[in-house]
Each structure stands twice: as structure tokens, then as C-alpha cells.
User: Which sequence fits this backbone?
């Protein structure tokens, strides 16, 4: 099977990327003000807004109308990647830690208005509307999490090692001895624990189940009880992949 | 062509349990969360079997045959995309028609689509990249249409871009092979609240759905095949389902509803 890391780069290369919610949390009035402070272009149905040959330092925001983003397939035909509505961003995302959609074209489906922002303008907007900066951070953080999940998938065999290490660490900090073993007195959801070790909840559940079967631990009411810290430490210390 | 199923081991449908939508959701969840069987693994099995059933439905040889693979935005569509790769590898002329834009599909679907694009396969979106006439012409010259538009988790009547694609397939009158359930058909009851595919054959996955075995779904789903997606017995045991060994002789079996 194709390595997940490879699939990501392949998907990216082919331009199958998502959108950015840059102005989430801003009021209509703020968005309106931003619209006025930037360059706006009226476009008609079928008008091309973006092509791979364009200068790569502009961000385009759809202010009115709908835009079809597509790429050319090897047989010379168009493949629609998405239909973007009002408020969506197109163009170079390098300021947002995201490459532009490679090989992507965009054209207006109907009459519309496109707002174009240069990197300098974006910096000024962030100074004036800090929420935009927060949205950028949120977006980057999602990107980072996704990248970590991909890296983790490539190194799947080491998840048990990382989980064992994390559990021993948590036991040391929050552990309380009981008859059943060491209770980690921190109520963690599987999602939280998964994020701590940079894995998915599914993989975490799978690894926890494996640890349970091997008698290393129990899980009771969202709490982990370590039954066999020695063997857990062996897993944590093992080097074999 | 009518004896296609005879080339696979036949199994009495009554000898194997059915699985409702709710139960199948649980089967899928356990497979992924408890047994580490990824969606991509299951999708690969489904698509590979689908291509094999397409070969049988086309009389035994895929070379030079024209297949349109209709792909929906959910994971059923991903099975269709895998099938498209196998069909092309095995000599068929394949054209992929997506119901919705590429970025509106699941991550697993996009993974499969990226592979097809890298292979140079013709892929387009029905509503945006083809005129009605072009879509009609593409379907009209297909020897077989693979229906991977909607899977078992789709609810209610199809609508929007998905409904439009289903409508074109139905009106084309071309033979259809459906993945898991004919699109638009309720897997539990066999009812069709809106536009629905009438398949020449259906490859259902893991366990048959009740709506394919009785009522209006019998005619809608045509010849019925069951494909193994590699789920372990212990998973079914946990849910109290006794499956037996339906795939002992072959990983795809023809289900006989008459016995």
C-alpha cells in the first residue's frame, strides 16, 4: 500500500487542498470594512480569476458570487476541485503556511466581486483585526496536527512506545496507588490522550486495547489504571521498530 | 452474460445473516477502532472485488471494454475509484464521473482520486465539467456503468448533484453494477424514496443488507454478489453475529436468493 506520507504529498501536488476560514469570527461590518480597504474587481461569468501563471503573492477573497476552482487533467480536460462561495479565499496561501493550489485555475460561475489582498495589506489587517491573526494560528495549528498524524502513520510501530512513555510520565505526575494498581488521576478523553502523543483516536484506542489484552493496564471510567508498570517500561524502552 | 454468477461459488442467501444499517455502522467502527483495519484497506478490497465482478458481468475479459465509474462523495465512492484503477490496469477503457467536486469528497476518496490522476485517468465532475449532452454520450457508449454513488449510510431521497448523476444513469438504460447497494435504495427496507438505480448486479460487502434479499430491493439489485473485506470473526462475535465461513471457497460469492 502507498505510504500515507506519500499520499499527502501526492494529494498536495495535485491540488486537492482545503480552504481557509480567515475571517471567521469577524462581524459582517468588519468584513465589509475590509472589503472597502482592499482592491476589488468585478467579474463576469466565465472570467478567469486565477491561473498557475499569475504572480504568486496575492490572496483573493470572494466577496460576491461563486467561483469554480479546477485543474487540467492529463487528457486536457477540466476537473472541478470545488465551488467556492462568498467569503472563501483563493490564491497564494504562503503567508498562511500553505502553498498555492498547484496547477489550479479559478473562474467565476456568475457575476461576482473579488477582493484582492497583498501580503503587506494582510499584515495591516492583522494589526487592526487581531482575530484574523488568531484564525491564521488556528489554521496553522490544524495543518501541524494533520502533518503530525501523517508522520505518526508512517511510524505506526512506535505508537505503542510513545503511549507507554506518556502513560508512565502521567503516572509519575498524577498517579495514586491503589489495590488495582497505579490510578492516573487525570480524566483524559481518548482524543486528548491521542493528541498528546500525536496520534489519532482510532490508533490510540487500538493500542490501549492491545495494552489491556497484555495485562499492562485497565481503563475504568475514563481513568487509566496501570497494572504492570515494569512491562510498560519495557515497551517504552524498546528500540525495535 | 446471464450466467456470470455461475462462475463463482454460490451461497444460499438464507445461510448467512443480514446486517442492518445500524449494525453495519458498528461493524465498521469496530473494524477501524478496535482492530486497526483502516478505511483504505477495506476500500482496496471492495474496489478490487468490484473490478472482478465487472469482469464477470462483461463476459470474462475487460480488455477493450468501456466502463463509466460513477462516484459519489462518500466512502462508497472511494471503492469505485479503486475499482477504476483495477479496471484500467486490467485493460478496460475507464472514465470516472464524480457527482461532486473533488474537494467535497472524503479524505480517503481524495487519496484514491490523486492516484487516478497520477495514472492519467480521465476524471471529471458531472455537473460542472460535462454538458448534459457529453454526459449522455459518455454513458451511452459504456458497456457497463459502475455505480459507486451512494453507500449503505446514505439516508432519504438523493438530492442535488448526486440526484442529477443518478438520474442520468437511470435514463441511460445502460447495464449497471452497484457497489454495496444500488444508489437510492434503502438498505434496510429496499424502498426507494426518490431516484434510484436498477442494477444488473450488485456487489454487497461483508454481509448482505436485508433490503437486497426481499421486497422491492430484490429486483432493483439484480444478481447479488457478496465480497469479503477481511473483517475478522472475532469482530462479529463481539456483536453476537454468527457468520460462518462464507468465503471459504472464494472471496467473492454469488448469493442465491431462491433457496
Assistant:
Amino acid at each position: 500500500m502507498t505510504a500515507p506520507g506519500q499520499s499527502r504529498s501526492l494529494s498536495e501536488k495535485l491540488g486537492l487542498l482545503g480552504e481557509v476560514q480567515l475571517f471567521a469570527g469577524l462581524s459582517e461590518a468588519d468584513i465589509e470594512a475590509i472589503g472597502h480597504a482592499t482592491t476589488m474587481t468585478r467579474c463576469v461569468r466565465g472570467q478567469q480569476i486565477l491561473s498557475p501563471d499569475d504572480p504568486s503573492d496575492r490572496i483573493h477573497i470572494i466577496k460576491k458570487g461563486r467561483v469554480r476552482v479546477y485543474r487540467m487533467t492529463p487528457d486536457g480536460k477540466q476537473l472541478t476541485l470545488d465551488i467556492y462561495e462568498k467569503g472563501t479565499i483563493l490564491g497564494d496561501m504562503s503567508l498562511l503556511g500553505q502553498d498555492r493550489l498547484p496547477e489550479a485555475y479559478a473562474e467565476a460561475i456568475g457575476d461576482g466581486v473579488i477582493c484582492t489582498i497583498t501580503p503587506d495589506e494582510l499584515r495591516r489587517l492583522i494589526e487592526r483585526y487581531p482575530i484574523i491573526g488568531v484564525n491564521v494560528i488556528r489554521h496553522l495549528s490544524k495543518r501541524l496536527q494533520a502533518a503530525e498524524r501523517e508522520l505518526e502513520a508512517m511510524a505506526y510501530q512506535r505508537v505503542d512506545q510513545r503511549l507507554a512513555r506518556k502513560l508512565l510520565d502521567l503516572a509519575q505526575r498524577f498517579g495514586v496507588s491503589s489495590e488495582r494498581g497505579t490510578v492516573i488521576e487525570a480524566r483524559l478523553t481518548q482524543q486528548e490522550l491521542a493528541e498528546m502523543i500525536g496520534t489519532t483516536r482510532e490508533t490510540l484506542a487500538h493500542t490501549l486495547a492491545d495494552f489491556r489484552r497484555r495485562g499492562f493496564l485497565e481503563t475504568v471510567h475514563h481513568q487509566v489504571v496501570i497494572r504492570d508498570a515494569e512491562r510498560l517500561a519495557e515497551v517504552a524502552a524498546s528500540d525495535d521498530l | 452474460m446471464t450466467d456470470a454468477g455461475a462462475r463463482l461459488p454460490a451461497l444460499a442467501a438464507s445461510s448467512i445473516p443480514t446486517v442492518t444499517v445500524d449494525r453495519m455502522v458498528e461493524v465498521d467502527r469496530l473494524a477501524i477502532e478496535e482492530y486497526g483495519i483502516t478505511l483504505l484497506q477495506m476500500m482496496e478490497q471492495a474496489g478490487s472485488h468490484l473490478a472482478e465482478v465487472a469482469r464477470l458481468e462483461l463476459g470474462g475479459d475487460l480488455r477493450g471494454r468501456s466502463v463509466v465509474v460513477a462516484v459519489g462523495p462518500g466512502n462508497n465512492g472511494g471503492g469505485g475509484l479503486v475499482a477504476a484503477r483495477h479496471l484500467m490496469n486490467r485493460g478496460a477503457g475507464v472514465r470516472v464521473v464524480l457527482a461532486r467536486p473533488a474537494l467535497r469528497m472524503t479524505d480517503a476518496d481524495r487519496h484514491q482520486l490523486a492516484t487516478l490522476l497520477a495514472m492519467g485517468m480521465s476524471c471529471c465532475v458531472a455537473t460542472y465539467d460535462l454538458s448534459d449532452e457529453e454526459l449522455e454520450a459518455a454513458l451511452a457508449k459504456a458497456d457497463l456503468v459502475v455505480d459507486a454513488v451512494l453507500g449503505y449510510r446514505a439516508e432519504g431521497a438523493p438530492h442535488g448533484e448526486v440526484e442529477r448523476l443518478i438520474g442520468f444513469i437511470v435514463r441511460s438504460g445502460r447495464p449497471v453494477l452497484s457497489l454495496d447497494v444500488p444508489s437510492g435504495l434503502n438498505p434496510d427496507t429496499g424502498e426507494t424514496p426518490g431516484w434510484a438505480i436498477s442494477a444488473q448486479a450488485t456487489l454487497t460487502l461483508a454481509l448482505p443488507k436485508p433490503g437486497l434479499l426481499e421486497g422491492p430491493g430484490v429486483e432493483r439489485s439484480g444478481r447479488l454478489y457478496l465480497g469479503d473485506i477481511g473483517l475478522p470473526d472475532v469482530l462479529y462475535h463481539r456483536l453476537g453475529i454468527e457468520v460462518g465461513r462464507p468465503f471459504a471457497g472464494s472471496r467473492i460469492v454469488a448469493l442465491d436468493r431462491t433457496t
Remarks:
- The two ends of chain A are 19 Å apart (CA to CA).
